[in-house]
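Supplementary notes for students who missed Thursday's class. We covered one full example, reproduced here. Read the sequence, then the structure, then the short commentary at the end.
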Amino acid sequence: MTGKAPSDSQWKKLFSLAEEISQLKPWNNLSEYSVFGVRLPEDNVNGYMAVIGELGQVAGVMAYIGEASLDRLRYIYSSECLLELTMLSVTFDPPESLVESDRVLADSLGFDLGGGRGIPVFRSHRPGYMPWDLEGDEAARMIIFLEQAVEVFKKGDWTGFLDLGSDDTRCLYRVPLAGGGWKDTIEEIPENPEYTKQFIIRNELLKSIWKLPVSSGPVQADLILMPAAIGGPGERPSTAYILILVDEKSFYVMAHEMMSPLPSLREMELSIPSRLLKAFKKAGVKPSMMKVLQDGKLSDILHQLGMKNLPFKVKEEKALDSLADVRENLFEIFSDGDIPGFSEQQDEDIPEEYDRIHVLKVALMHDRRTYRKIGIRGDQSLKVLHHAIFQAFEMEEMHLYSFFLPPRPTTSMRVIMDSIEFTDPEAVFPTTSNEQYDASSVAIANLGLTLKQKFYYIFDWGDEWWFELTYEGVKDIDIENPPEVIKKKGESPPQYTD
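Structure (token representation):
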């Protein structure tokens, strides 16, 4: 991945903006956890601006691009996660630490390398790659980000900044105006697009794991970022991960699989639960308990999936001693250049029903003549369907919700409420007799719905808006941005009445 290098005029502008920021020294007044947004004029992508340097280390300004990077930054669990962000950065490095290309660039732009001040060093960060030099289109973006950062830093008003350590859902944005210029606005942070796709595990695979004999002791598992960069001379070096299972007692490596996070880190993450189960299937045994690092990448992925959705018990530990020893030996092998081949996610691992459109008729239970037919992709979750229903019926204010899947069509509220429930991840209910699952971790295609099957949705447990959903199957229809209303009958009643 090698693009066109920045022009001389772009470099001059970038260094000029860096000089302004260096003089303003925003890291003296701002925490690294304080962020504001800058919206790019050409595509409305948000860059989230933050500073480093408050603790006296190398200072700099970071532009984390998109809501996916913002979410990963908010829930970061190790320094390795920085390699999983789409980010543009400028740091002010001491002259003695510069690589030759940075030294030559700074010198050509008239920077005094012996002046004892930090020299601007610009880098591009993309998931699946090591940091690399800026390309021309990235330089154009970075100029916009830094121009707006200078304006914000000059004002010295931090009102509306997002605190990364909080649960805040609003942020200050610098937004371009149609006639030119910029304005400040505080808005809701858009939803992370990575969460529209869900984990896919074939039911047949789950059933095959249930039938396996149980191991005599725990198995330790981890998803490890490889210590070596991969790529030829002049290429942007890529990263790789290895999924590894180790018997806790014997240190025996039950399975290991090396994976590339390209072309999409998220697609690799979504494949991990299936890969994990396939590894146990190949080993011919399922663990009596699987242990994972409490703050590790594998733990993070399994929490997104919902650990109780796995066919064995998972326990989080602060350290995995057996796996740590094996990991050290593996890294010694890799440092000698003996890197195994990649294992790729094969197309046949993803059944077609996850990529196709499923149609659901959503009708008001008190007036079934008023309904919306919604087309939704099979890999999208019940949480996504909830948002689609909210918009389709023109609701005004969000509330908690649940989906209920009774074993048969019914009008009995007792039967509905006692059936399997997929509920709002924000909901906290006391223990009930029915099975409860997180609606955000369940894909439509994983529900196993049959044609004309009915299930039920409640929105707002106070006013209790009940809907009856009828599954109309997989359809060959073209929807640009699912979920989408494909048929509408009846007017939406007001959410609140006087």
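Commentary. The longest strand covers residues 367-377. The CA atoms of residues 100 and 106 lie 10 Å apart. If anything here is unclear, bring it to office hours.
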